[in-house]
What does this fold into?
Amino acid sequence: MTVIECGENIASAAQASSHSMAEAEYPKIRFGVVGCADIARKLSRAVSLAPNATLHGVGSRSLEKARAFAAANGFPAGAKVHGSYEAVLDDPEIDAVYVPLPTSLHVRWAVLAANKKKHVLLEKPVALNVAQFDEIVAACESNGVQLMDGTMWMHHPRTAKMTHFLSDANRFGQLRSIHTNFTFAVDADFLENDIRVKPDLDGLGSLGDEGWYCLRAILWAANYELPKTVIASRKPEINKAGVILSCGASLYWEDGKVATFHCSFMTNLTMDITAVGTKGTLHVHDFIIPYEEKEASFYAATESSFDDFVTKWRAQPSKHIIKTDIPQEVLMVTEFSRLVADIKFNNSKPEKKWPTISRKTQLVLDAVKASIERGFEPVHI
It folds into this structure.
């Protein structure tokens, strides 16, 4: 098996250059964290490590909880601690907010943040449905603020390498099928008490929490071309409150491409992508969170075949290892902060690529949910 050791690739090297320039030219973007969800610990660390961002404040419904969160997560001594979300948004010194609140609260707080002229880094899924997300987008556009969702793996240098392989007509050819999955096994306490199984908090359940990643990966592999038809798989697992615990679907394009995905709270941890083209195949087994923080890999094969006796492959897929000293969540914060700084200091317009990708992901997620609710009928996009 061929192993290719890569340092920072061209894309990430260019990012590093632009980041260092941004750090030298502009003051750091000041972040406020709206809510103390567990995922906010990871993002707070990322802001601390990003060269062009700094933690400026945090708010919770409880002042004591906000104080404990700031103390436990490396907030600088001068950071402000608030006993409400509103206080974070009202702070004139905060440039951008990270919103890790339950999905049902996204439309309220993201719109309010935008109306307060705060740039918004929003956890996924971005909303309960695309209509809600459109409200968020409209508020961000009318106030000239940047919007990006928190799909961290999109910013890993491995993703740029994989994109290059998929776009190579000589090595990969034309995309024909994509298969993705994200599953992890939860305990009884999760199934009873976690917000992701509560219809009034995160009513999309596994579909929103895990399926979002699967659908994003499918769209990414298809160069963000929307499928024509979505059909949910039969017999999803649904709890007594009506929240999805596991599900899947098939997606179809007019040119014959097909995709499938599966997500579940009831199955061992997996996070795979298989993309098959007319000439090549891509496999990745840890696409959401790499096995190791400082390196990630994928497998690529071109014109695979068997030997004469059909007892083995002529050549095995090659393993490509991408090393990075900068974790993917830090790269995401750095890129978001770069865009915010460009708006703040250069009067640039917000980058529309990220909300456009978010909307397409939400649109397909909505179609899966609609197909389940309609008895697994085809839903056309």
Remarks:
- Confidence is low (pLDDT under 50) at residues 1-23.
- The radius of gyration is 21 Å.
